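Hello K.,

You asked for the raw outputs rather than the summary table, so here they are, unedited. I folded two proteins back to back in the same session to keep the settings identical. This is the first:
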Amino acid sequence: MRGIARARWLTVLGVLGVLVAAALPAVAQEAEDDPPVWTEADKDGFGTAVGADSKVWFTLDDGRLTEVYHPRLDRPSVRDLQLVVTDGETFAERESEATDQTIELVDERALLYRQVNTARNGRYRITKTYTTDPRRDVLLIDVGFESLDGGRYEVYAVHDPQLANTGRDDTARTRGRALVSTDGSQDLAAALVAHPGFRRTANGIDGDTDGWTDLRDDFELTDRRSAGPGDVVQTGLLRFAGKHGRMQHATLALGFDDSVNGAVRQARRSLHTGFRRVAKSYARGWHRWLDELGPRPDSVARWPVHYDVSLMVLKASEDKTYPGASVASPSMPWAWGQLTIHDPSGPYHLVWSRDLYGVATAMLAAGDRESAEHALDFLFETQQQPDGAFPQNSEVDGTPFWTSLQLDEVAFPLILAWQLGRDDPETVREHVEPAADFIVANGPATEQERWEEESGYSPSTIAAEIAGLICAADLARRVGDDDKAALYERTADEWQSQIEEWLFTTTGTLGDGEYYLRINDDTDPDDGAELELNNGAGIFDERDVVDAGFLELVRLGVKPADDPAIVGSLPEVDRELRVETPNGPVWYRYSHDGYGETNDGQPWDLEVPGTIGRLWPILTGERGEYELAAGGEAQEHLDTIARTASDGYMMAEQVWDRPDPEPEGFEFGEGTKSATPLGWTHAQFIRLAWSIDAGAPVETPSVVACRYARKC
């Protein structure tokens, strides 16, 4: 998703010496000198309460709680929390490694998840249900434990805090029966409290004196009242309510605050309220929110839960301190999961104008105009730069992170402003016109296109620029700025008339030799210039590299669906990029893509040769939108995206692309270890669903289509 930007960032980090061997799984980092890493990116579940009173988000994977975010969605403060089971004499094992795991949605209209972990040796079963308290910064976990063989076992909760997005400066101690931790550089504290209270507790340093290492070595927990500063780990022996031989229960509360007293108080208040009452309140919040959106589109009759979860994932991906700031994904894929825990934690926790546009248009189609308005407010009031441009990405508070120029990201807010009818003079003159002026002055060639890896003339970028300028012209004319409107229209018309001249080769090396290029370094698409692809993919004749970015010309109304150059480019794209998976047709991003796992399933890493970009469900949705614009059907495309979702209804950035090889943990047509859930994928699913019902892409701005693609 973020090729060249990631490559640059990895190069910097490599110089700093913080790369960890890509082959080492996160759960195996136990030695004292091994740096801590974030957990894998393919999350099974993701949740938070509706509303801004509870600024806690959780993720789930491999039968355990993984990253917990607080107080912002770009600030993970927990690495993981899982259970260790021992008989005190012969074995100790972690549930993430020793059990067969399933996940289920307890309530199909709320992000309320339950994990069921059954020991492979047949000794026990663990059932955990997760909720956040809508009124407090607290995560609650209902823990059920059942001995299946009649044996008596001790169950420990092992908590790895990484407060304020760092893992080297925390301190931990036992306070009464609470395990509390504080961050060394910020006013942030966490408290893990149990009901019934912990029977025994310990605090240690990861890989040295932590509870798991202690239990693994001698099956007993050594009492350590405090630890740190450093990468601390906390352990508590659970005390269950109920009779042995039946399902016994305990509740864990993980509270956050700016002080230890506040964190403990928050956790205890949620415990006092009780898991059931809190979970009911949590579920009611999601029910009310979904009800406000109205009925689902007919196209998701087979996929009602996929649709509702997709909506909730998009809502949950919005920060609560900075409304409208939706992160790309609550995960750290591949090499990002193999880096030392650092601040920032990874690029998917940033806000991209392009991704946010996708989220906003999906929410608008689904009836949540308020979320779309918040997104545009964030773009204009928080992220936009003084020169009218938008950064490549930013933190949720608008602070630019990577600063490369992607002109489609400057254009998309203009299209969104038009779709929302934001034609008040202040918005148009202070935000729309500066962005449009920037496009006129700096386009149509872009420093980076939508895959963030190449510079030059890009069909997808130019489509967004032209559409953005026409939308800006209409808004400018509404406030009486006719000269500005004429400038934008004149520029857009000139660029639209030259698209084929710049980007359609007639001497290509693929198919019949006539098709759109992925990108051109100049205005001659037939010169065979060398194109160096990122992610170690190699150097190719630019005519050897295609993608489906030219379909943006149709979706944004710049070209009609039956345009000969558009239709003539589809065979090359399908021959090069389409794969028929067991779940349906899915496409690669572009020829020779290197952003994905190796064939043996090792994570993407700039330093590891042989990584291969896998299939993107987003592109199945975009192809579906094109088919609708061309007068065809797209239900198959929607069904395909739904079938790629995980058991927890999470939709991935990429899915595995072949039946052989299928490394352990990978399945043809199913999600890889890429960013999961990816907001862009969920947004594409929602938008395609509404487009199917409408019989045409709902996002296409009519003011653009009427000028270029159809008679109105």
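The second followed immediately with the same parameters:
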Amino acid sequence: MAMRTIQKKCTAACLVAGILLSFMAAIMLYQAATHATIVDESPHIVAGYSYIVQKEYRLNPEHPPVIKALAALPLAFQNINFPSGSSAWISDVNGQWQLGTQFLFESGNDPDSLMFWGRLGPILITLLLGFLIFKWARELYGDKAGLLALVLYSFSPTFLAHGPLITTDVGAAFAFFLATYYFIKYLQKQTGRNLIWAGLAFGTAQLLKFSLIILIPYFTLVVLMWILFKDKPMGLLSVYTLKRVGVYFGKLILLGIVGMMLVYPVYQYTVWNYAPDRQVSDTVYTIGSSPFGPVADAVVWMADKPVLRAYSQFFLGHLMVLQRVSGGNTTYFMGEVSSTAWPEYFPLVFSLKVPIALLVLLLMSLGVVGVAKYRKYKIAIRPAGNFVEKIIKSWHVFLEWGDKYFVEFAFGLFIAIYWTLSILGNLNIGVRHVLPTLPFAYLLIASAMREWTTSVLATDGISIINKVRTFVLNIFRRWMRLSIIIILLLWYVISSLSVFPNYIAYFNGLAGGPDNGYKYVVDSNLDWGQDLRRLASYVEKNNIDSIKLDYFGGGSPSYYLGDRYERLDARDENQRNGWVAVSATLLQNGRGVATKGFTGETTHYNWLNRYEPMAKAGYSIFIYYIPY
């Protein structure tokens, strides 16, 4: 199916796609204008600004520069004060957190304006991903399928939540999808020009997030699939097969070289003013105790070599990510707190954080494809006699399907690889971590629903009366199936709009909605500090003179609350009265059950269990009034 590419001129479908993306842009712009700075944004935006203006890649090297630089680009043309005299900039190694707070809230800048302008770059990346999803789905399956995939994307609570934030999660999803698009296009038409485009897409991906290193084993497996399904070797271990593997792997290396050639000038710009001796000392400080000794030593060695300094900083980021993944992170999950991952974390969080209608569409797609292929399989092997003949015939059926549905096989392979790595990894950082798999799932749903609505009952070899009856039945089946899909899409859209503009806190009905989400997970699934400005509005509206706050986020409570703000210490019994507010992440981490060897304190907010919150700022900051 995927190889029978559908090429059409842009008609009404493109107009509808433009409307959908415009609506998505409006929702994200509203959030960009109203959300407080979330946890990761302050270091990201100050780092991006330092790359462009200072040309020094000293801040936040654990992420590639492009998303941060793109966010900071509008600021480079404004009169912005950069805290270049701060010790966090002058002497600290990667003083990103302190400098980010100083840049936004302590340097005479308007933090709300900086954040709004900074969020325009990530919004643009999010819209580009939507365009690419529509484009590829339309090329593969037609206009209706393209719009179906785009509706699932443009009303996705998760993409709407993270699209307007200065983080790398949506950028990673865009990068995986872009690189896969151009790589498969290259395999389908293996020209030098397409190889260069695939290499440039691969290089772009490496500049957006370090997890894109997964593309190397993924592309390798896709190539092996191509040889198996498309080149159809007579023997899997034949000389011909080995030659084809050699040719393709040589081209993969060329593709990688093109990509790394794109990486170089971007990193070279960002280390232009980075003193070589300082780069060496910072690198040693950061990865001096790395468990990846020989690689770390090589990165340190490259740090002051004029031609290699850019690549040293590139590989430094990879090592930092590997160190973080192996170290884990403190997470609240279903009443427990641990720094060790739960294998059931991502499946459960996914089932609670996406609309139920999407879960139904996923199950329907699996059912539609499974039933249809099982029936065809049974027909195909019917002539086979003994067990060996059935095995041989089954293998031939598999090869035929791999040829016909190669792109879908590639989509499924990526989803399987990424989910496996996520479940086996030691970072439970939220549903945002599996965002890259969703665009591929949307296309697979579009493919399955297209097949479901276009399949018809055969009319060959039956009487005229039965042909008429079958014709009417086919029309009825088609409209019934279309109606089911439309109802599910309406449910999906309404479910998404119901939480506007609090998309970070979206939970579906299985979790009891966003009001109950904190019982399952917090952090980026619910509370990233986005509701600080809403808390300030609540305090102002209710004439609250003083409020004790324990805040989790990237905003500044003293900036928004002024003299009304008092820092809450959960362990100070003298503060347990009056107006009290606590971010959900800190609240749940302070009243969960320590498990799996976690030794940190998790009981310091148990005293709040005796009280019900008066209100919430958004869904993430709990507000209490405790009588004196």
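The chain is about 60% helix and 5% strand.

Happy to rerun anything if the numbers look odd on your end.

Regards,
P.
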